[in-house]
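Internal ticket - ligand job 400, 3-methylbenzoic acid:
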Amino acid sequence: MNMDSTVDRLVTGIDPFSHAFLSDPYPHHEAMRAAGPVVWLDHYGIWGMARHQEVRDALTDWQTYCSGAGVGLSDFRKEPPWRPPSIILEADPPLHTRTRAVLTRILSPAAINVLRETFAREAEALVDRLAERREFDGIADLAEAYPLKVFPDAVGISEEGRENLLSYGNMVFNSFGPRNDLFEKAMANAGPVRDWIMSKCSRAALAPDGLGIQIFAAVDSGELTELEAGMLVRSFLSAGIDTTVYGLGNALYCFANYPEQWAVLRENPSLIRLAFEEVLRFEAPVQTFFRTTTKAIEVGGVKLGDGEKVLLFLAAANRDPRRWDKPEIFDVKRRATGHMTFGTGIHGCVGQAVARLESEAVFGALAKRIAAFELTGEPKRRLNNTLRGLDSLPLRVTVA
Ligand code: OVV
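stdout (structure tokens):
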């Protein structure tokens, strides 16, 4: 690749973790897709991939694009990680294969379907209360309130202190970026938050009928050590809250912005599942993950060296016109599966059945009771080095 070309120079200066980029990433995604299959991001000395094909190829080639050096900007082989690495997210085979097998079983669609009635009942109760209020904040009162109730309930965590889960998610997802202002702010109260989280990861802290204790059952069967089981509960608490909070919030944001799409969905509630996939494609709650090369490799004529960080723009792949027809249009009838928001390959989201069940419960309940959403003020963005979503979404609802 000719690094002196105009397009490359345009792209290479981009800081994908700056406020300007995070506030409106889409024009920058377009510039990077246009620049080529892989671009050099000079600001950090890393590679970036923004096209669907290359993001997908990288995610499905774990031998070349590893996770064991961390899936953030920081290379664990060069600087110490801020917490002991995740033994599933930040691991490669064979360790990953063993830990993943346990979570795949516990979080399988069939196993998670057991939660359907509880999730639906909780969603209906919450939506009833909000419908009575008429005006509420779509983020605090719904997108945060719902996962903060049903997910820790499902894992088997006590009620007290659950707000720590939001603080911890904020730490985890900002930590994949550089040590910028967002990272520093998220880490302001790190000690007590981390202590609370770790105190919830032991066998003794978990309810006897939840998902958490099922991880410890794998210790009894010899698949995991006691320490590993605690670390996998930590993965539940790291990955299970903020992702769904931002996903549900982005869904509400889409339906408030595109009322005709909410009308389509209400006419045909069987579209709810598909509609959530379209939200994930269009406003991806998880925007990026990194990989690290394990050898020198050539991508579209560009030579990448060994041990180099590659930033995969999942959200840019989701709007690549090479893959999607009219990608800038939010269309709940679209076949949106194939989006990269859950990733793909051996690290593809192991909790996706839980995320989908939460969204079905919430939007199923909303479709029954809410005819329309109306913004009563400007939504405020909450910037995060990895996640895209809102701080507040002031809504008024029309009750059906
Ligand atoms: C997918 C994900 C995100 C954040 C943290 C983890 C996993 C973890 O395993 O800790």
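Auto-summary: The longest strand covers residues 288-293. Residues 1-10 have pLDDT under 50 and may be disordered.
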